[in-house]
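Practice problem: predict the structure.
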Amino acid sequence: MTTRDYDDVPGTYVLDSRTYRRGYHLNMFLMTLNKAECREEFSQDEAGYLAKFKLSDEQKQAVLDREYLSLLHLGANVYYAFKLVSHDRKPPQVMYGQMSRPELSFEEFQKMMLSGGRPIEGNRYKDESNG
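Answer:
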């Protein structure tokens, strides 16, 4: 696999050709949440609705568990993943907080953002000892 410059930036999950292929069916599922009838069907039986798509077991579980950071790792487009948090009628900060650091609660994420966001130290590149 080709290494890209942005592979070394913590928290960067670029939807490029590598991730797009992996997440194609996941993104196609997420886009169905644009339609009211699809949202209703998904609400009635989430696992059954997901079975209609060629998702990996890991992708299905990430959707069911609302693991937004995992969805990105599994190839979801962040804008499409937003459709899932919107479907749940949650504020976007729920997704953003989990994407920032999965262990952050909604309240902790809000506090961090109001305090100026993530600190730059440790967030420029994965091995900051490279200088």
